Amino acid sequence: MATIINSTGEQDQTEDNVLFTGSCFCRAVTFTLSELPMKAYLCHCLNCRRSTGSSFAYNAAFPRSALKLSFQKPARTAFASPTATGSEDARGDAADDSTAIDESVISTFGVKASGMRKFCSLCGTRLLIYVREEVAVMQDKVIIPVGVIDGSEKDERLRPTAEAFCERREEWMPDMRGTEAFDKMFTA
């Protein structure tokens, strides 16, 4: 059975009103989200660029109260190559049954004042982003990289509606149609 930790740090076994599910690559950390995102967006800030190794990150901001984390032994411990059909041909070796997994599997980079990124310490997947303290409008939000949300590639509720830090957008990258552009972080 998985341990579920709600946004206040308490154990919880209910999964009512789940709108989204997701996980890290090894599936030691899974989560549910019980509310729609405040905004799904592309972020061109230097922190997102460096942490993804790409020109931008594709994130969604959710109320912190909507997030419930679960922890279990990893479903895989090795990279599985996709087949020509896009499905995985192997999941890698499962973790030893004696492996105890709890919230300590999540590692943190950063501090509250300057922002924190949380990731699975077993597979390295970026999972949660907390914006620095001075951005008051984001203090009750958690940012989730959209790629860790199950089925995100086909879910219109996660379509980007904004671009943040456009002043840092690559010159070769065109404006994204249908999104609102912000030179810094969006305000609401």
TrEMBL record:
Pfam families annotated for this entry?
Answer: GFA (PF04828)
Molecular function terms, GO-annotated: carbon-sulfur lyase activity; metal ion binding
> Which UniProt keywords are present, listed alphabetically?
Lyase, Metal-binding, Zinc
The answer to keyword Lyase applying to this record is yes
Instruction: Write down what this protein is called.
Output: CENP-V/GFA domain-containing protein
Q: Whose protein is this, by species?
A: Knufia fluminis
Show the PANTHER family listed in the entry.
Answer: CENP-V_GFA DOMAIN-CONTAINING PROTEIN-RELATED (PTHR33337:SF40), GFA DOMAIN-CONTAINING PROTEIN (PTHR33337)
Which InterPro entries does the annotation name?
CENP-V/GFA (IPR006913), Mss4-like_sf (IPR011057)
Q: List residues of the CENP-V/GFA domain.
A: 20-167
Could you say which protein family the record assigns here?
Belongs to the Gfa family.
